[in-house]
């Protein structure tokens, strides 16, 4: 399976809850565990500003390119340096590349991306550029796909993505998230707002119903799976309290349902703020395992996996 990754995703944001070193740690873990080899990783191409403008407004893109601290950039909760802006642009070309790979191979994973709080005209919540939205608009513009579903299983609602596609019936935005938490909610095509302390069983019951329904009713030709690690029990930003096993099952429900129906799927990493960054890394690596399993490429002898899921047809 092809993975998209760049060392430049590890930019310096100072002391911060967002561990930008997780990307290189995920790559190292994939290599160390024998799940991937160096030649499975692909660098994103140089960012194309016109791609970013497919989603983001001229004023906002100008602020980013000129590192201007304005009402549009200030809500990022991040510093604004060229390394950071370039890093976000690179994450965006990475998501686009992973989408191109998935169209050829069925599944490709981006060890990056998932910045679902960025709006067309402003930054929010550690997100400067909505790579998900840019990739979708780019694929549509290229005529490669029309109907898309975003299956967003990050702890937080995909508010930026929801707003960007609010008037586009070709893009179905699904978000399952902790309700009483950041952000101020936008209207997705389908939102499931969960109570605090939801846990594995109820969470995955929702997904077992929702994912096949999205596929059968919206008929997407492509799925971007926002595989945030932050619903985790030891996350610092939320209390949905899913275990690693529950999160791996979540991954399997999304990935298997798409793959069995022949729908290309690209997981992107999004959030993950576990007290111990290694937990966040392991959750993301487990997502990669579920992709490899669906493709029949999981190396023999890799550790115990969650119970099988029987998707509804
Ligand atoms: Zn999140």
UniProtKB/TrEMBL annotation:
Keyword Cell cycle part of the UniProt annotation: no
Entry's family note: Belongs to the histone deacetylase family.
Species: candidate division WOR-3 bacterium
UniProt cross-references to InterPro entries, sorted A to Z: HDAC_classIV, HDACs, His_deacetylse_dom, His_deacetylse_dom_sf, Ureohydrolase_dom_sf
Annotated keywords: Hydrolase
Domain Histone deacetylase: 16-285
Name of the protein described by the UniProt record: Histone deacetylase
Signal sequence range: none
One of the GO BP terms on file: epigenetic regulation of gene expression
Pfam families: Hist_deacetyl
GO molecular function: histone deacetylase activity; hydrolase activity
């Amino acid at each position: 399976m092809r993975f998209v990754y760049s060392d430049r995703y590890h930019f310096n944001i100072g002391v911060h809850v967002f561990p930008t070193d997780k990307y290189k740690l995920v790559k190292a873990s994939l290599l160390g565990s024998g799940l991937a080899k160096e030649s499975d990783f692909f660098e994103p191409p140089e960012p194309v500003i016109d791609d970013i403008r497919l989603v983001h407004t001229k004023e906002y893109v100008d602020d980013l390119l000129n590192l201007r601290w304005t009402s549009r950039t200030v809500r990022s909760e991040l510093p604004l340096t060229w390394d950071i802006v370039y890093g976000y642009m690179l994450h965006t070309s990475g998501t686009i590349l992973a989408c191109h790979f998935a169209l050829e191979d069925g599944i490709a994973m981006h060890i990056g991306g998932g910045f679902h709080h960025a709006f067309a005209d402003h930054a929010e919540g550690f997100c400067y550029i909505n790579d998900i939205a840019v990739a979708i608009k780019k694929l549509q513009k290229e005529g490669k796909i029309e109907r898309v579903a975003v299956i967003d299983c990050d702890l937080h609602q995909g508010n930026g993505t929801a707003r960007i596609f609010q008037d586009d019936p070709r893009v179905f935005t699904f978000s399952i998230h902790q309700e009483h938490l950041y952000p101020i909610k936008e209207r997705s095509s389908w939102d499931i707002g969960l109570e605090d302390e939801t846990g594995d069983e109820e969470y995955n019951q929702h997904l077992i119903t929702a994912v096949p329904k999205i596929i059968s009713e919206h008929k997407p030709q492509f799925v971007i799976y926002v595989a945030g690690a932050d619903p985790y029990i030891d996350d610092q930003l939320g209390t949905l309290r899913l275990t690693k096993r529950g999160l791996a099952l979540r991954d399997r429900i999304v990935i298997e349902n798409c793959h069995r129906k022949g729908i290309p799927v690209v997981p992107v990493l999004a959030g993950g703020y576990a007290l111990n960054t290694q937990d966040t890394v392991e959750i993301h690596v487990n997502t990669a395992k579920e992709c490899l399993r669906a493709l029949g490429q999981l190396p023999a002898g890799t550790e115990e996996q969650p119970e099988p899921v029987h998707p509804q047809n």
